[in-house]
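Support reply, case 0932

Customer input (verbatim):
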Amino acid sequence: MRRLMMQSPIAIALMWIGLFLTFTLVPLLVLLLHPVPDQRNFWIEFSVALGFIGLAMMAVQFVITARVNRIEASYGIDILLQFHRYTSLVAFFMVLVHPIILFIVEPENLQFLNFPQAPWRAQMAVLGTLAFLAMVVTTIWRKPLKIPYEPWRAFHTVLAILALGLGFGHAIGVSHYLSLFWKAVLWSAIVLVALWLIVYVRLVKPWMMTRHPYVVEEVIPQRGDVWTLALRPIGHQGFRFQPGQFAWLTLNITPFSMREHPFSMSSSGDHPERIEFGIKALGDFTRRIKDIEPGTRAYLDGPYGVFTTDRYWDSAGFVLIAGGIGITPIYSILVTAAERKDDRPFLLIYASQTWDDITFREEIEALKEPLDLTVIHVLRKPTEDWTGETGYVDKELLARYIPLHRGSRHYFICAAPAMMDQVERALFDLDVPVTNVHMEHFNLA
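Our regenerated output:
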């Protein structure tokens, strides 16, 4: 583990980007290794190249979203999901432009849009494009369309399989570049690997999770309408995690269900025998946490995430900036550091609505004894006798507290998106190196 920590995160990230480009472009280049039967003009060949690149990018999306630990550990799941969104849009653009160019260069191809009369290869192209379009529309406008997350997730998976499978079937049917057996085998292998990842994520991994169940040990009320959900492993040792990481939680249902939710652990990463989550009552699922009975069966898929101080063991210290329930992973960082007798300085800037809303308030105060910990509370609605910081965590407030030598610390921010964006801009204006600022967003669709 120490060896992995000492590797440059930027170098690891660049390596995975290189692999992405390789897996996207090499299958196209392989098609050129043998002369095609006839010569066609540039625009037709260009449109075909766009189609194949789009198809390869679609296949790679299955790898990006498969929660491969080695890839996720290089970026963090928030970056991977953003990358997945943008590259999917690029792939859709290429798939859409592919027939448009053909229609412009050879208008007679418009007859293939007559679906009942079109050959099966053209029908597959139309259906695959429509599936891809439906997937993009329902993802971008899921919330305005009021599509619940769990049905959308199942629908998204089905549409992705249809788009990839029909697109590949179209390429086989046209058979211009895939006429040679070994080329067809190569592309078939690419598609089959992508489909296997779906089977692994939706069937194999949930089956493995059923062999490592957990049970709810207790549900503890906290300040700020937050509940600590404590789980104990059944028949296994649980898992250790790096403080600040998260896991996908499935509660009181089978792990084969689509109803799983990501939550940051709030307990020490060195105690797998009891894993705790700090969960704020914000939505339908989280509001029911307080009613969960001890003994309820649970399943965990984790740990995930790069929002952890363990990756920066040689840092001189840390600045932790939290807003509301964003304290959860940061509290895990502090608890773990205290147990490890970490003697580096920690500065916690914690924004809350009121004094009574400060989750883990007493517990954090108690951590000042084993840690070199400075806590700055920032209240948006203070009482009249409050003498501490008020308002928002802005550039002026940060300038009063962060170290003069900005690059000597690593900065971890976890809060609502608006606060995270504001703090990120403020740290940039204060000359904090961007490589020293760490955030993690959870915007799944």
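We compared this against your earlier run and they match. Two observations from our side: The chain is about 45% helix and 15% strand. Confidence is low (pLDDT under 50) at residues 1-7. Please reopen the case if you see a mismatch on your end.
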